[in-house]
Design a protein that fits this description.
Blueprint: E1 2-4, H1 16-26, H2 31-51, E2 57-59, H3 67-75, H4 91-99, E3 111-113, E4 120-122, E5 125-126, H5 138-148, E6 153-158, H6 160-166, E7 168-169, H7 179-194, E8 199-203, H8 215-229, E9 234-238, H9 248-252, E10 258-262, H10 271-277, E11 283-289, H11 299-313, E12 318-322, H12 341-344, H13 350-364, H14 370-385, H15 392-399, H16 412-418, H17 439-449, H18 455-476, H19 493-496, E13 499-503, E14 510-513, E15 516-518, E16 522-529, H20 535-543, E17 550-554, H21 556-561, E18 564-565, H22 571-591, E19 596-600, H23 615-630, E20 638-643, H24 652-658, E21 662-665, H25 675-681, E22 686-689, H26 702-715, H27 734-752
Parallel strand pairs: 1-12, 2-6, 5-7, 6-8, 8-9, 9-10, 10-11, 11-12, 16-18, 17-19, 19-20, 20-21, 21-22
Antiparallel strand pairs: 3-4, 13-16, 14-15
Helix pairs in contact: 1-2, 7-8, 11-13, 15-22, 17-18, 22-23, 23-24, 26-27
The structure holds glutamine and zinc ion (ZN).
Length: 755
Amino acid sequence: MKTHVLGFPRIGARRELKKALEDYWAGSLSPQDLISVSNSLKERHWKIQKDSGLSYVATGDFSLYDHVLDTSVMLGAVPERYGAKASGIGPDTYFQMARGDVGGNIAAMEMTKWFNTNYHYLVPEISPAQRFSLSSPAIVKDTRRAIELGYLPKPVLVGPITYLSLAKGEGSFNVWERIEDITDVYAEVIAELSTLCDWIQIDEPVLCGDLAPEAPWRFLETYVKLNQAVGKAGLLLTTYFDSLDEHLDLALSSGCAGLHIDLTCGRNDPYDRIVERLPEDMSLSVGLVDGRNIWKTDMTKALSVLRDIEKRIGPDRLLIASSCSPMHSPVDLNLETKLKPEIRSWMAFAVQKCEEVCLLGDALSGKNRDETLRANAEVLESRLSSPLAKNEAIRERCAGISEDMLHRKSPYRERKKAQSWLDLPIFPTTTIGSFPQTPEIRKNRLLFKRGELSRDGYKFFIEKEIHKVVKIQEELGLDVLVHGEPERNDMVEYFGERMGGFCFTDNGWVQSYGSRCVKPPVIYGDVFRRAPMTVREFSFAQSLTSKPMKGMLTGPVTVLCWSFVRDDLDRSEVCRQIAFALRDEVLDLERSGAKIIQIDEPALREGLPLKGRDAEAYLRWAVEAFRITSSGVDDETQIHTHMCYSEFNAIIQSIAEMDADVISIESSRSRMELLDVFRVFEYPNEIGPGVYDIHSPRVPTEAEIMKLIQRAAEYIPKERLWINPDCGLKTRGWEETLKSLKNMVAAAKAMRIGH
Ligand code: GLN
Ligand code: ZN
């Protein structure tokens, strides 16, 4: 049997790619040097795969920015505005597509999340007139290079059905009309690759989700052609992030030489069903090492599954693999020196995951790896019984949840009356929470972290910042103030650092998009609050003003979604624990005089499972977690929530069930059209649709903002409208922030005339 991983993180164990890219963009690294950094990363990653003992190394999975963008480039699918000839897409065009060109006023391609991960890809743009042709097939070059270096390559492509499913057409153009043209280019590259390798991995994760109506028959048609092109090599159709379920038949009838399934997630579609129906000439690649988490695989369990499958299909048709590309996991656990040794012993990053896949292969083929297997079993057992992972008091509290914990005391209508003591004007103005995080703030935080600034010194600095933003907001004439969040490095990390059950890595970086990486906190144990987390800053801020100051928290679903979550407890249970910890914080804020408390849930929608039919279960526990957090307060206390996006169609019901008194959302770019969902649904509570885009430094005029407010009032009764920007202001500069907010307040005041 053979072993492989579906890809490897590109960014480098020490984020070498990030640094190289940023130097290149700043003009301090030459194109040749950028290429040589990326070549050495590719070679290093191949070596890691080979040295761990894997049969193949993945090629073509590396990317300077994004592998979906690379696929567009490979197909010659370069939108017209970049003015490039398909034959010559150089680094300038490539990065223009990725990042836009401010000077030349050329917009970047749109970016969005890759399935239900935190990775972002660039959305392919397909037009009726686009000419596709194979251009700069880096994958062929890389595959040849890997052979030269003595590796057995397995090139990795984003499959055409997934590619088109993620693409957008111009206007109402149906992108599927171009499938045949795209297939021709795929066939060409597959034919070329097939002379170089045994397997070509073709990723079709879209098969694990809901498919467009035309996708199934397009899939079959396309794969007939691709399998004709593949010659003596085999296509390995890879599916991941969920089980195949109703698309299993489709996958089995693809005619591909191999099928990869992800057995780490989804409903664990009984693999029996797949094995039973696997065509005799189809190999099965089984993903049992999770490519998206940081935890060790349970080898005993994995081996028993593999032994069972092997018994039925024989070793020759079996491949052992990671579930998906470990690009969603950090690179190397060996760089972590500060973790508690016990917790560290539970973990495996990408490098270790390669070793795990190999270990499974060795054990299955009868090599003596008993000692390593025994060590694995011991670690897993110790984790199960570790007091670090389990806290009875927390378990009991969560189990003791009662119906009244999930409900505010009165319905919204009555709360609205009770909240009249806030004495707010019509069209009340506020901001989303953060104010510009200046280099000075960052510098002071760093000094404090390094121990070069005392606790008192840092506290004094933070209070000075809070003082500054409170004064500014009063001068601007905003109605509901915020403290500005200067003490927060990141909206999840800040809370993770203050709760039990979390730990932090030094180098656990994962690519989010391009050169941007995130270092998610790790939830390894039961979550609890050690002490109040935000009360001090809130109280200080409120003491400076007679206007209401918002208490400001990150919600439980967002904390969950933006962390690495333990795999020994259901996500819904982990979320509930976070919710209880935050509930205490909400009550402490209320006791300290907060009249308004905002609980941000920007990640609510991204936690949605791949399949529409699983959405309901997720939304049920996600909404419940929000309600646990928010429902303990009195009617007089106003609860706000905030979400950073503008697509609410699929979740409007759940948004209403969250029952926040006020929700602020992003909406300026959709010119308020998204409010139609709220109108149709007759959303009963208050809404603050963002009236200006904070993603750009552009200052909106007063007239422009007034127009947006008027439009908003066509959808939502004006008594229920709030006026605020789209999102927090932390990435903005002070200059544009002041001007924009001044215009925003002026617009709201102008709208009040006559009311
Ligand atoms: N309160 C946060 C801020 O203003 C909200 C950010 C977010 O939702 N992403 O920065
Ligand atoms: Zn936001």
